[in-house]
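S.,

Sequence below, as promised.
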Amino acid sequence: MTWFKKLFWIGAGLAAAGTLALFVRDELRTSRLQSALWHDLASDAHYSVETGASDAIRFPQTGPFDERLGYRQLPDFIERLQGQGYAVTRQARMSPRLLELQDYGLFAPYREKNQAGLILRDCRNDALLHMQVPRRVYQRFEDVPPLLVNALLFVEDRHLLDAQPPQRNPAIDPERFAKAALEQAQRAIGLGRTATGGSTLATQIEKYRHSPQGRTGSVREKLRQMASASLRAYQDGGDTQARRHQIVVDYLDTVPLAGRAGTGEVHGLGDGLWVWYGRDFDEINRLLAGGAEEEAPADEALLLRQAEAFKQALSLMIAQRRPSQHLLGDGAGLARLTDSYLRLMSEAGLITPALRDAALPLPLHLQPGLPPQPRPDFVQRKAATALRTHLSALLGVPRAYDLERLDLDADTSLDRVAQATAARVLASLRTPAAARAAGLIGPHMLDPGADPAPLTYSFTLFERGAQANLLRIQADSMDQPFDVNQGARLDLGSTAKLRTLVSYLEIVAVLHARWSGLSPAELSAQTPSPRDPLGMWARQYLLRAKDRSLAPMLEAAMERKYSANPGEAFFTGGGLHQFENFERSRNPSSMTVREGFKHSVNLVFIRLMRDLVRHHMFGGASDAERLLKDPTDARRRELLARFADREGAAFLARFHRKYQHLSSAQAETLLLRDLKPTAPRLASVLFTIDPEASDAGLDKFLARQLGHGPRSAGELRALRTTYAGLSLADRGYVARVHPLELWLVGFLRRHPDATLAEAVSASEKERQDTYAWLFKTRNKSAQDRRLRELLELDAFAQIHRSWQRQGYPFASLTPSYASAIGASGDRPAALAELMGIIVNDGLRLPTQRVGALHFARDTPYETRLEPRHASPVQVLPAEVTATVRRALFEVVDGGTARRLKGALVDANGRAIGIGGKTGTGDHRYERTGQGGRVISERKIDRSATFVFMLGERYFGTVMVYVHEPHAARYRFTSALPTQLLKSLGPQLLPVLQRDGCGGD
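The prediction came back faster than expected:
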């Protein structure tokens, strides 16, 4: 009985094992069970895109593919954009099953993109920029030459496209998997050194797309790849034949093939052939389309071309296993492996002997560099470049390389056709014929025979929207990535008069708000400082006015008169300056602010700026008048200490430039070079630069400089006693050298690598000591002069804050009346922002360049964000901007831009109102000698600008610019940009006024 039971159980076990073996064999042959299982799991793993932010979404945590396309960073992008006024308007909702699978650690199953990249769309949804990475791909399986399909399967996955069973799981090759498992087990117990991989194409794709760093770091990671690939394979049903064909395409399109400077990471066979062999992808495919024929082509030259193409493609399929080793080395190992596979494929009947024999002798020449490429047309790409820069700042992605690889579709406000038209016209103006056709040759423009090629033309145009100012055109003719509209501080000349006029009228509006509600008696009791002309005038006007509303007061302010005489010298910016008018015929005139603005008269605006400065110095709550009169006012000492600190720092900067790269000996020689040597002077120098100098050191120093030392020890001691104990200021006085120069040479002797900032930080006490004489009350006149400089600085700081509210882009103004005529510089884009405030009745609307951002379209991570515009800010009173607009129209009606009067008409033939302000800037570097005499002069650049408004919809800037060494050859004025607008406007308006430009 016992034997019977044993036999029974043995038989039962063998039967069960046999049954299991048959089941496994059948499952491996048919994949029936796993197809049902995986399809059941995958069928409910889906997503939908709905309005608003999603509460059912997971973003990937790792994987080169997910990082490159931005899917992993999407939560950070969303948070950053929300902080800048964007809101999620549509987002993917993942099904519970899809969320569950990801929570288990599997990769999300969906139809992944082989190509993706940044797309910038214009206001009509046309593409301005369409980056696709990789660039060269197969769209369908039928596009892949059969020869390449056979080669890939032979190298990587020989049973992938087997017709039977139709339910075959592409994630598992039973033979390779069993062999790899056995070798891994032998290796684990020390019976084997190496183990082959069991990966199929499907699992390789999962690995290099989604696994950390694109690698298989553990058995668990391998199982995750296999499970994820299985889910993806059965998502559309049990029959995987179509999916297996797509795996071939996916692999060939996206396989990583190392990277190269100038192009970055290389993905896909198409890009790989171009980068590593310089081959045209379409040509390769044409050559190989018939390469699988049994008979060799009769044309031997054609056979050689086919053989070379096939060998290069095959080598890349082999190189993917160790791409950096094979493609960044000498290529010898790759060539041997490729030849070996050629022989094996011939033996397997996959290629003809003729193709094999033709390919074997051919060398594999990896290109040492990228193939020649056409130079980018920066003029045509300028707007796209500017938008990428803006988008880069929005997302916090500093590298253009990373930005262009994001799966991102961005709406912009630009008009592609208008942008291309403007860019084409500006680029054409490099030729004399085009410049002449545009009317740019003539007085105050280009001289006959002048070469227009060195000139840079810039044009920016905005359209008013209900919630934002919409950038429609941003173009310039500079054939470099640099954007002259936003990237430079330029002397734009008299366009600064527009900023000065706005500040002037803003002050009038403030005075009106302060005093217009007072009764005559209360107003009479107000006592503005006699040094505040604007306060005095405003009080008198309101006392006389019957209508105390703001608009007539602003018009009266425009009628205030100033002399245009250039004979007066102006003390401003710490020095005495004289200014000239462009038209000397204006010199004897006394004219209103309105006329001065209309004809751009410099001296009118120099004197107007002086009044603005004096108002900020002495008007309102300022108590500067008493400060200057009362020498005992405690605030004087505080301000004088500030002056000493500021001017001392300026001297230190000058001296640091002089000595910073010299050794101690060289610095000493330079310091003493212009010194008339005497014992007292030399002792003062030595005890400053070397406070620890001994008597012996002083004796040697004097002997070296004078040829002899002191006559006695008593004389030596007297020199030490007298000069070692002097203050820094007194030692500088004795030596006839600025005290801070003496101190800095000593400081650099002890700290040879000290920066200017370190020197300034260490010299706080010394700077105050140097100006100790200034704090004595007997020097009131000197004190007052310096106090007035500080009060002027504070006044310009207040004017600067006013300009900044109106979009001025820089951190400070040049503290000089010359800022009224352009000395502080500006940017065309910033002037356009000011014009936007003016045309929008004093409201600062946000500038919209980039609108909706659509990430990861057609993926489970799809997210769309749209800007939620901040409420407009009232920067200026509407009455002020209305007054300024009238003045701008007068500039065109009869002023410096009169050539534009009636130049543009609408579709009905009616003239479009044009207003604006002209400006010409001439940036020179002058060397001056004694008495301020100019020794030499160098013209650095010249610019001419027109900031404009067209009708009620459009505004912008047009500029012409030329830099040294060419600048000295040109004498053009703002007539040149106004003529350019006259020529360009009729070409642009019909394009701009087409229907369908969204974005508002």
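Residues 2-30 form the longest helix (29 residues).

Coffee later?
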